[in-house]
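Quick check before the chapter quiz. The format below is the same one you will see on the exam, so make sure you can read both the input and the output lines.
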Amino acid sequence: MSRLSAERKETLLRRYGSQGINAGAGPGGRRPGGFGGPGASRVGMKGRPKNISATISRLLSYIGQDKVKILFVFACVLGGNLSSLGGSYILRPVINNLVYPGLSAEEKIKNLVIGILVMAGIYLVGAVCIYLQRKIMIGVSQKALVKIREELFHKIQKLPLKYHDTHAHGDIMSRFTNDLDSVGEMLNHTMVQVFSAVLTLLGTVILMFVTNWLLAIVTLTTVPLLVYAGGIIGKQSRKYFTGQQQAIGAVNGYIEETIAGQKVIKVFSHEETAMEEFAFLSDELQKKQVRAQFFGGIMGPVIGNLSQISYAITATVGGILCLTANFDIGGLTIFANYSRQFSMPINELSMQMNIIFAALAGAERVFEVMDETPEAADPEEAIEICSEANRAEGARVVKGEVELKNVTFGYIPGKAVLKNINITAKPGQKVAFVGSTGAGKTTITNLINRFYELEEGEILIDGINIKQIKKDSLRSNIAMVLQDTHLFSGTVRENIRYGRLDATDEEVVAAAKISCAHSFIERLPQGYDTLLDGDGANLSQGERQLLNIARAAISKAPILILDEATSSVDTRTEKYIERGMDQLMKDRTTFVIAHRLSTVRNADKIIVLENGEIIEQGTHEELLEKGGRYYQLYTGAIELD
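Here is the expected output.
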């Protein structure tokens, strides 16, 4: 029996299953809540897509770019349906000739052979049409799916950091996998099958009236019952298939985040709790899947059994007409066949509903991301900047002076994290931030990069407001070494070169030497060509951080940000790389965030932050002389929390 409280279950459902941004989330993924990827936004708990027609129209716009091919596909579908209906109609004269007493046996055999050959020709044409429409439609649909996937990925790259801070990676991945798979299934097959079913239904009705209008009316009297039953089941099916897609996203999000946090889970012995929470989310998914599959599965049998009733009634009335109204046997045979075919397209339409509902739910989730507000566009007059060492045509050379003027900012409107911050860093200076967790140190560096937009005040680089600098240009001139390392799948050389893609092999080695990574790289099996996988799982945490530092070293950016850059290495390694760090920071304006105060002693300026305000600033010696907060921290009278 689960030990999870009702409150915890509600929290899990809200956190992993509710739409919207967790407004309380701060930078760097620090969100309130439990372990295993807490606080992330999840899939919207909607009963159905908000606007089915708009979603369908948007999907069709992607395949509408191949209008000629689509028209040819529909022509093939039309040809296939006409051949199927026409082939069935040929049975009428064939059967009537067989039972007509005025023909000899030889004539009957001759007519039978001719009828069979005609039917074979018609069905052959239909087979060719089906082959062509499926082959062409799959090509068109896959092309559309690729375009949707690419647009979704491009949009992810354009979304602000706040979106990634407040949305689970697993849920975002679910849009690329489960949701797009559902959309692909509909585009590949379902759309054409629905069109084919509609054509078959219309053609069957027309031929039924041509064959015998009285029997056609009898058959059509069962249509309201079929439509009513299909509508009731379809409504429930749509609701639960939407819920199923949302639950899949929630489970994927939880799996992704708990796997990423396995070390933390094991450190605090939360394995049992993680399994219970996952079991709860998995059970919720099971409930939705059972309901979705049940209502999706019973649609066909219900419609099929109702159609059998219609078929029995039609056959009975047709037999009576043969006995009393000279209705021909051939006509009764093909009408009975059409009566059975009449229910088949209805059944086909109902069977496709589960795929359609899953696809629409998935498409809406994809479009929700694509409709998110991207980062603010650069103004037309925005300029490009470059460093002295990396001059670019048309770009303004900057030395790296950074100034924050009256900066006030909060992640949540009305709740300021920074209050009236004023800082000036001259070119080449090293500025260190010291303060408790949540004091606003990392927030300042995020604002310098324009990961978030200011509420009040301004940030200047060489006197230029960063809002007047193109974002790509701004960020390419700010190198960062973060506390959390991230290495991409590829070689060591490629990971270092990620800091500047046009760097030569010699510059890669030089950057590695600066960061003191060269010696351990040389000891790797293939040296700089050693493949890294799993975010550098075959390296120690310290080695991964050294590569991270080398990546920053290879950049010629005039501004450098070190956010707890040496927190992942031991004291011996830290001292060993200090010489390299000094070279890295040489001639660069550097901002350092560090809990180890020994690493900031040589800073040109140390800024002490508390509750988003600057309470002290000065050199190491000046702050010790003041005997204030920094003195207490340095002497151990109080500790950083």
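If your answer matched, good. The two ends are 39 Å apart (CA to CA).
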